[in-house]
């Protein structure tokens, strides 16, 4: 049996995928990310100096071991200074 058609096309199953890739590559990148100055300063503020990190680790160990002793007079003085400076 022989089928003769007048409308013969070459069908390529990968042609649609190739066309889509060309369209994607032709489009300029539209996504952008900008970090504000306020966000940058917040990132910098989150970084602790090495000496402070060491002190925090010492305090954590003391609390875990049960050897940390808080001085109530020092705490009261620092709280008073903190709240009096805010006014």
UniProtKB/TrEMBL annotation:
* Compositional bias of kind Polar residues: 1-14
Q: Which organism is it from?
A: Salimicrobium humidisoli
Is Repressor among the key words of this record? yes
Which NCBIfam families does UniProt cross-reference here? Answer: FlgM_jcvi (TIGR03824)
Q: Which Pfam families match?
A: FlgM
Q: Which UniProt keywords apply?
A: Bacterial flagellum biogenesis, Cell projection, Cilium, Flagellum, Repressor, Transcription, Transcription regulation
Name the UniProt record assigns to this protein: Negative regulator of flagellin synthesis
Keyword Repressor among UniProt keywords: yes
Q: Map out region (Disordered) in residue numbers.
A: 1-31
Write down the superkingdom of origin: Bacteria
User: Where's the Anti-sigma-28 factor FlgM C-terminal domain?
Assistant: 31-80
Hey, which family's this protein in? Belongs to the FlgM family.
Q: Where is the composition biased (Low complexity)?
A: 15-27
